[in-house]
Records
---
Amino acid sequence: MVEHIHSDGEEPAVTLDAFLSQSNATAVRLEPDEDARALIPHLDRLALIEVAFPKFRDGRGYSSARILREAGYVGELRAQGDVLVDQIAYMKRCGFDTFAPEKALNPVDIEAALARWPEHYQSAADGAVPIWKLRHG
Amino acid sequence: MYKYDEYDHAMVAARVAEFSDQVKRRIAGEITEDQFKPLRLMNGLYLQLHAYMLRVAVPYGTLDSRQMRMLAHIARKYDRDYGHFTTRQNIQYNWIKLEDAPAILEDLASVEMHAIQTSGNCIRNISSDQWAGAAADEITDPRPWAELLRQWSSFHPEFSYLPRKFKIAVIAANEDRAAMRLHDIGIQIVEKDGQHGAAFYVGGGMGRTPMIAPLIKDFVPLADMLSYAEACLRVYNRYGRRDNIYKARIKILIHELGADEYRRQVEEEFKHVKSLGIDPPKAEFDRIAKQFAPPPLDASAPDDIDRSDPDFAVWVDQNVAEHKVSGHAIVNISLKPVGGIPGDASSAQIDVMANLGEKYSHDELRVTHAQNIVLPHVRKADLYAVWQALDAAGLATPNLDLISDIIACPGLDYCSLANARSIPVAQKIATRFSDLGRQKELGELKLKISGCINACGHHHAGHIGILGVDRKGTENYQLSLGGSGAEDVSLGTITGPGFDEDGVVDAIERVTDKYLATRTEGERFVDTFRRVGMAPFKEAIYG
């Protein structure tokens, strides 16, 4: 389920470099220019991957999210930063399950945005059945 | 023609609802213009110099008469009674009110049309050969492939915030009528061992750094096409430059990596993506292809044309092309009357074309990247009636591919990016060369004008190209020669110092005079240029 969070008391996410050089962290933060595939050998011990969106126009985090889900990551995948209500439906499709926007979003708008699309033309990382499959069973 | 099913209808309806909500929130001040901008752009809405401009998608340039009439209706009801057909086979309206945009999108949706992804840093409307399904030289109709790509790219969650816009063209003939290799991805459907597949050319484009796309993969089977496209896009989304808007197109990435390294990365990504099962089954392609089945054309229809009316004969020779089925022809309607605005058509003219499409062309029309309209399936016996109706509506200018069949961007008359006006230059050139005999003597000569470095008017691909620049506050026009957007693709070379508006028209006349004096039998302008090079033309221009 999608949550709109900032929970207290969780372990802070460390940088990718710090994570790769210390064995006990369970939360990591991925910047847009960092390679999500560097995390693939370590997905088992990760509980949280926070993907940074310093600017909403920078769409690299969408690919990072899909790559992580495609590699079998099942932990929390969080979009953090310049996360706007008009982006979260696509983010969810790419595998994000939590959102930490810098500017709080209106919960009614979030609900409307996530309920907007009845179906999807293509498969992504959210498990939705694409329209072509609905057409052909 | 592709017909929406319940899913397609629901997706477009959801988009209209979404955008109506976004406009409402923008008008209420709940989102900033900066936040609204990418949303309106992904719905085709630009803020131009004087008003909002709405760009409506015409997927692969194909329309039926009902849709064409809707375009006329929108021009009449919401704009100033005309529309402008564009180099992406779309139509744009120049005088739109923001608050009308949701109603326009609803009107469009009622005829299975939309403005989805006609701008913004996403995968744009897929373009194609305007003679698809009719051309004598095609190996198959490319549009089912284009439609498959249209659906895959619509609302693509991973590729809606790309470094920059992304344009795909699909053709299936050796003659390239869609400037395929000047696209971010150009696909040519080819045949190998009796199977059709897609040759992928990636990294072409115009703009300030024009490039011809290199071949990245010579044959991608239908069953892998979307996975391959997804791999191409993913490498770009991850590694395309985002630090400089002028270096953000995929052509720069491929130029910097080299085609071989880009190909290696795509192949690696493809191996992974292919395992995800994102390619639809053949049954989906067949479902789409069935809707593009050829119309029931009678191959025994009379194949000769009564040419007794000389004006009609002139038009037939210039604007009518060979159809794959005997007794039929492809009619090209020029939207380039002398002194007119290239690509513009009034509501009344759009209605005339819609009616002709319905009555004489199996309810089909096409928009071309050269900003003209095509009736793809006309019986030769009906050509005279079609010509008479076109002539009465000011639509029978017999100048297809001649010097006055000019591609021009809207330029500084409308566009907020432009440095110079394009339309008055186009009008002056067409007027200077208005004598049809003179135009025909010059033969095929593709003249293309852009009002700024972004090259929407395809000037790099013009046999003669004109680029308007701002030079110390005055409009200045650079001339280039030798470009082509066709199968003999090439980029034009700048002649030298630029000109003012009248100066560039004079320079073109010196260029064409030099061509006539230099050509050998049967040589087009661009062939002569390629044979003799720039020097003689330069001398003719600058002395």
---
Amino acid sequence: MAGLPRPAVAPPPAWSFPKPVRFVLDNGLRVQLYHLPGQYVISAGIALDVPLAAEPRDREGVAGLVAATLDQGTRSHPGASFADAVERCGAVWQATIHHGGTQVYVDVPGSRLADALPLLAEALLEPDLLDADVARERAITLAEIEQHLATSAGRADQVLRSSIVDARYRASRLRDGEPATLRTVTGDDVRAFHAEHYGPQGATLVLAGDFPSDPAALVEATFGGWTNPAQRPASHEVPRPGPRELLLVDRPGSVQADVRMARFTIDRHDPRWADLQIAAYALGGAFLSRLNSVLREEKGYTYGVHAVTAPLRSSGYTTVSGSFRNDAVADAVATIPGLLDVTARPLTPREVDDARTYLLGVQPLQYATAAGVCNGVMSLVTAGLDPEFVDRLRAAYERVTPESATRVTAELLPPAELSLVVVGDSGVLAGPLGEHGFDVTVVRAAAEAPLSVPSP
Amino acid sequence: MTANATLGYPLVQRTLDNGLRVIVNPDHAAPVVAVNLWYDVGSRDEDPGASGFAHLFEHLMFQGSANVRSGEHLAALQAAGASVNATTWFDRTNYFEAVPTGALDLALWLESDRMATLPVALTQANLDNQRDVVKEEKRQRYDNVPYGDVIEHALALTFPAGHPYGHPVIGSMADLDAATTESAASFFRRYYHPGNCVLTLAGDIEPDDGFTRAERYFGALPAGPTHRRPPAEPLPPLAGVPRVTLTQPVPQDAVYLTWRLPARGTRAFDASDIALDILGGSQTSRLYRALVRDGGLASGAGASAMGLIGGTSLGLAFARALDGVRTGALEDAIDAELRRFGEEGPTADELERTRVQFEREWLSQLARVETRADLIGGYAVLHGDPGLVNTRIAEFGSVTAEEVRDAARTWLQPEQRAAITYRRGPLGGGEE
């Protein structure tokens, strides 16, 4: 305030990712325990080595249906009595599918861990997966997909993914499966997928929180007997990019348009990852990033515009996303490539320093809770990385220079090579986009070309 | 931990001479401090014709002050490794940043500069720009989203015309257009001063150190005008089932029902909250079982309570129809569950489940210094007692089955509802 000079910022204290206790059960299940004092809700999650690429091409969606049906009844707790038991011990249940693997997770007050962990195991080892439950979960998932695609942003993300990842790869399609294949998945398919893919091989159990007592014995007693001789080894796909496209997806009556401009890039294993993260933050992560300061704070076209890299286990893609009012869409789309052009305007030392300080500074908070640590580790494991990656990345951030970040960005995000997806009212948008030199292909709801399921 | 537990998060409070309440919650687990300012102003304080103004003003708080350039508040804190944001709601506007300890002074200096001098930097250009930004926020979150107008209709049906809760926080395009720099300056003078704010510091700082810094950066600010809202009269339950039917490009037909509930901070509100949780809070709830799991009528169904401090809260239930199911059938099924619940009340199992679930959710929120600081500030502003964060589990757990049953009978009967029905129409179509 007036009178007091602006305070200087003192350098942040040293911080590193918490160190787990690790061991491997005789059945091959890897275990990581993170004792975090003061975290009274314990997070227990298991990352299964079940990539979506393991799904049969004509039954895509089956992995999601297995995950969704796990808590619909087990041999020991049939039907709704399983969900009752989970809730009665104060736990909350979550099973999520990712292209790299499946994650099953509970949060539970520390005093009830001994009640919740056996339930987690039960659902993995002996789920009922009954026909009626599968049919209901299938109907619910189909309705959820419909709701997701009815939103402008959901549609934009889906069309972008199907365009930027080559159609030969599972990662080009919805995680839950496209409706055409999901509709055909039966209870038999679900039970067969579970029998062939769920097992301790390649799986990692992560516990984080303030443990009332050492949970190692509980883990051994709960998961030590898990075997599945039928479990197939997982093989992970290495996706390639699709051809560059400029698509305008018609959504009549939209009062603004969702814009995605993207390029197929890299994942966290790539030595350029730290450079790309710092560059993406300077270009479209910070509040006064190059993109947001012009398109939001100067022009008022949007509530916000961001540049983010979504890493797959292998490869990834970097996307500029935002929603813009109709009369500003064409100008925004024409402006974005210039704002990403680091050859014309290299990243500055100040931009790189600010990005580094931010990315290093938010990590202690991101990993301050049991849920943050458990989910963070599961995400790394699913990507084929170990938790030491966090500290390695911190060291890599320290080594990024303006020159290295500029070079990597120029290499990975050449502004003239971006794919484009616009979801909005084509009657309003097609003309101005054409006038700005974007020769877009209009995708109408009836044709839905990018949604069609190519033959295997 | 049991449902009767009282938690032990240390809280130390002091009020500066200018009226600023400061609360420190020391926690040295990580080298960060959550800084949280709750201003006692929200959309309920907006004048007629000025809907959306409290939120628009929140945006202006990031557009600079006497010693801070436009956008610099956020940029400077991010560049120090902080995460920063603000929200506006019916009963509050809160500003918060979680900072590495070395950036705490910068955060306090930035917050005090805008509390002291914001109008100096208010310009027509900044207002016009942020008005455009807020309009895009409204389109992105509400106008361009299936069912995005449900809250607007729910408030309009549940509260009388002109009631402080009768309009959505985001406001209307026409009212946003009417905002001026003069109205912003006068809004600032009325609501943005030390006595209308609670500053909470949670994290790696000791209380005495926190108070010393608060005094250094905020102590010289002048006290502002005290404003007293007229007491909010609780509204009686709705009568006559007010209803609106909308034909829109939604993916599925759907029904949303609302009720008036007691104000938050009362046992009757907690009892209503528990009733709605048992009816529709999870996949073991009665509505989910009846409509989704067993009934095969809906792809989703649920219920919840939205606590509001000003006399009357809002209860909500919804269901989305599977293909071929009429919304009337959904409403009938919900009505039947409400009626049965009012007659029988909760089972012992249901009540126990709600208690342990509340306990876990509460502990999870307190596990993060950012959400803990926000809860502390909220209970200080709305209830005058930040210590409730330590006693809420016990308080919530003491609500009896009879109180829950009585709340359902008094506040949640089918004839006390309002109804919003969505029918699926083509893209680009309008409402009936």
